[in-house]
Write a structure and sequence with these properties.
This protein is mainly α. 49% of the residues lie in helices and 6% in strands. It is globular and about 80 Å long.
Length: 437
């Protein structure tokens, strides 16, 4: 799907100081807001746009994921997330995000096989983990190990070669669960577990995380299904902070492993993918329903840095559709695990209820986002809090890879190099140290 010029809908820009005017072309996508093309703005007017945080800026054109924040809509290649979460599986969603269409049975079997047969890590890489302290945060390990992949896989670093990109993309998707499971097991002093080719992607991930060499480990199908659905929900999300990081790193021609490592680093932040870990910490800090009003009050207090983690979103000004599916999954997993009442889930539900009735949250359109419930599910699955963002990174790798490939293949793509509004000293002469006050 490519852009359509709708030049009859130009915007006129007038400099009221000089009376000069410029016609700015408008470009229309397939759905969603049109864009005003400002690529010539500086050349023609000598002015930059100013948009810290890029609240009103389109950085690229993309046909992968569409979000309507007002309606709470999210689609991958046009398919609603709710339908994919219900009917698809993560590897099929990986195919969809990368190739743009749902696979035929033959295409899916071939893609599944290729991913399965790339899940092992270079044996030397296992030694790489040994350099970390056992108590390292697993996200620190992920950044380091993924960044190091370019030291192991020299045969897929030429980003101009589509075959290299294809091999590197497959390796990234296939190996992230192995790296994540190793990071977890290394922190416990447990031996690494090799992947099994008879298990599907999510089953294999749980197997590598939780099995022990001492006895047979049977993957719980409920947990495997829940994991697969959670991976689908986190797979891609338009030009979020970590995806934009991957794109800008890739725009310099950096190799894909380095770009994905940059994305992992960005995702780690508590305002982004680190929020799922922060939500659990917040719920434990709140402790009981009686304390909710005090924390709601703190979240509204401009002088208090406390924010309600798992609430709010740059784009969604309605319910995050993923949060709805996540809430339903939380209930299913807890029920299937026989967990009658999980005090943290009860607390989260009550917090959501109170927040959504509060004028501050309603007026600022702050709704639960994808991170609000995910931690509760992961905790019920026996996954430690420090691994929550690692799971987000595993899921989002396909989104980063798909967006990176789209960027490399985009003929209009240039190196990302924003400008600034300079507010420092005008030019001044050097002063000898003996003459400084
Ligand atoms: C993800 O971009 C993506 O797509 C990300 C993501 C993905 O899939 O890639 O969806 C994943 O990162 C989800 C978000 C996870 N983060 C959190 O849950 C952390 C808590 N949320 C906030 O930090 C915040 O809502 C952000 C970072 C998510 C969005 O910040 P924005 O868009 O920059 O909004 P803002 O900070 O300007 O907030 C607007 C107003 C402010 O008040 P005013 O200055 O207008 O008076 O809302 C307030 C904020 O103070 N506000 C909150 C709040 N979030 C926003 N107040 C209390 N608690 C909150 N959580």
């Amino acid at each position: 799907m490519k852009q359509k010029d709708v030049s009859e809908h130009t915007f006129t820009l007038t400099n009221n100081d000089t009376g000069e005017s410029w016609e700015l072309p408008v470009i229309e996508g397939s759905v969603g807001p049109r864009v005003i093309d400002v690529r010539r703005l500086y050349a023609d007017t000598g002015h930059f746009t100013y948009d810290p945080g890029y609240t009103s800026t389109g950085s690229c054109q993309s046909g992968i994921t569409y979000i309507d924040g007002e309606q709470g809509i999210l689609t991958y290649r046009g398919y609603p997330i709710e339908q994919l979460a219900q009917h698809s599986d993560y590897v099929e969603v990986c195919y969809l995000l990368i190739y743009g269409e749902l696979p035929t049975q033959e295409q899916k079997a071939k893609f599944d096989h290729r991913i399965t047969y790339h899940t092992m890590l270079h044996e030397q890489l296992h030694k790489f983990f040994q350099g970390f302290r056992r108590d390292s945060h697993p996200m620190a390990v992920m950044v380091g190990v993924v960044g190091a992949l370019s030291a192991f896989y020299h045969d897929s670093l030429d980003i101009a070669d589509p075959v290299h990109r294809f091999v590197a993309s497959t390796r990234m998707i296939a190996k992230m669960p192995s790296i994540a499971a190793n990071a977890y097991r290394y922190s416990l002093g447990m031996p690494f577990v090799y992947p099994r080719n008879d298990l599907n992607y999510s089953e294999n991930f749980l197997y590598m995380m939780f099995s022990t060499p001492c006895e047979e480990y049977v993957v719980n199908p409920v947990l495997a299904h829940a994991m697969d659905r959670i991976l689908i929900l986190h797979a891609d999300h338009e030009q979020n902070a970590s995806t934009s990081t991957v794109r800008i790193a890739g725009s310099s021609g950096a190799n894909p492993f380095a770009c994905i490592a940059a994305g992992i680093a960005c995702l780690w932040g508590p305002a982004h993918g680190g929020a799922n870990e922060a939500v659990l910490g917040m719920l434990e800090q709140i402790g009981s329903k009686e304390n909710i009003p005090e924390f709601i009050k703190r979240a509204k207090d401009k002088d208090d840095p406390f924010r309600l983690m798992g609430f709010g979103h740059r784009v969604y000004k309605n319910f995050d559709p993923r949060a709805k599916v996540m809430r339903q999954t939380a209930h299913e997993v807890l029920k299937d695990l026989g967990i009658k009442d999980d005090p943290l889930l009860d607390l989260a539900m009550e917090l959501e209820r109170i927040a959504l009735e509060d004028e501050y949250f309603v007026s600022k359109k702050l709704y639960p986002n994808v991170d609000f419930y995910s931690g509760i599910i992961f905790r019920a699955m026996g996954i430690p809090t420090s691994m929550f963002t690692v799971l987000f990174a595993v899921a989002r790798t396909v989104g980063w890879v798909a967006q990176w490939n789209e960027m490399v293949e985009d003929p209009s793509q240039k190196i990302g190099r924003p400008r600034q509004l300079y507010t420092g000293h005008p030019e001044r002469d050097y002063i000898d140290i003996k003459k400084r006050g």
